[in-house]
Every structure is written in C-alpha cells, then in structure tokens.
Amino acid sequence: MTEGNAEPGAARTPRLTDAVRQARIDMAERTGVVVDLHDAEVARLEILNEALDPLFADIAPEIELFERGITRGDPPRLWIDMIAHVVMGRDKRLYRFVQDTRYGRRVLGESADVAEIAALVTKYVARRLIERERVLAGDTELAARDVLIDQISRRRRRRRTIAVLVLGLLLGILTGAAGLFALAWWSVH
Questions:
Q1: CA-to-CA distance for 185 and 189, rounded, in angstroms?
Q2: How far is CA 62 from CA 59, 66, 74, 136, in A?
Q3: What is the pLDDT of residues 120-178, one digit of tens each?
C-alpha cells in the first residue's frame, strides 16, 4: 500500500511536538497527584509557556518590555514582564495570573484552562504595548495620573503623621497632668 492509497480511517502519525506536549500533560497529571508537586507546577508552567510562544513571536525584537521565563523557586513562576507573572494556585491545577503594583499584588485572572490564561496574558501584553506607545508618543496622561496619585498618597501620609504627632502630644500632656495631680495628691496625704 502506498501513501497515496492510505485508507481514509487510518490513524495519522502524531507530530513529535504534540506527543511531547501530551507526555508533559500526562506527567504533570501523575506528579500533581503523587509526591512531587513542585515538578508538576513547573511542568504546567512550561506548558503555558509553550502556548505563549506564538504571542511573543509576534512582538518586535526591539521591544524589550517583556522578560518571559520560568523561575523554579518556591513557588515556581512564569514571568511575563517585571511586574506580572503566572503562578499555580493551591490545588496546583489552577493558573493564577497576577501583577505586582505599588498597592500590592492584584489577581488579573484565574483558570485551570491554558487557553483562558493565554488569552488573559495576550490582553495584558496588548495593554502594555499600548501604554508603551502612548508614553513614547508623548501622551502624558499616564504620567500625570501617576504624579497625581503620588501627591495624594504624600498628603495622606502627611496627614497621618500629623495626626499621630498630635495624638502623642495630647497623650503626653494628659499623662503629665495626671502625674502632677498624683504627685500633688500624694504629697498632701
């Protein structure tokens, strides 16, 4: 039988990359249940990293905004850029896409599905590229908003500091007055 005469129902030989991906998924499933949860997390992050390859292939090489890579620490993370990464959830099957901000960590999305997380990362990358274009074009709205937020936070810190100082002063005066009153009362008796 020649290749041209293959039966229509005959199974195709799978591509090696598909077979490797499936082997990683199978291994991640087994290790996620068994002992080595850390390796399962890394394997799942590698699967997501491979799913993001087409996205990062579309980004021009001169744009050095993104630093994608897996760190194998505890917990392992798939970094998208300097402030956003994907980490596995507590059950080791849920992807959690988070961003570090000056106000703390913000969860951008969670899902057990690689495609959903890849879509969230795609939206995030698109937003970051638009922000970059606006800054390079001289759009100062973002910078002005950051300056305004900094001014507001400085005012709040200043007000808190003044309130703490005034409260401390009042407590000092009350404590001193109570001490003087106790001393006068003790010296009379």
A1: 6
A2: 9, 11, 32, 14
A3: 999 999 999 988 888 777 766 666 777 778 788 888 889 999 999 999 999 999 999 99
Provide the CA 150 distance to its chain's centre, in angstroms: 22
Instruction: Return the ∠ at Cα 92 (arms to 87 and 94), rounded to 5°.
Output: 65
Q: Name the residue type at position 67.
A: E
Q: In this structure, which amino acid lies at residue 3?
A: E
23: its two tokens: 């082997």
The mean of the pLDDT values for the chain is: 84
- CA-atom Rg of the chain in angstroms: 29
Q: Kindly state the tokens that stand for 140.
A: 């100062």
What is the residue whose two structure tokens read 């106790």?
A: 182
Structure tokens at 73: 């620490």
Which has the closest alpha carbon to 126: 79, 48, 63, 69? 63
Helix/strand/coil for 107: strand
Give the CA distances from residue 162 to residues 18, 152, 158, 168, in Å, rounded to whole numbers and listed in that order: 63, 15, 6, 10
Percent of the chain with pLDDT over 90: 41
Query: Residue 109 — pLDDT band, cuts 50, 70, 90?
Result: very high
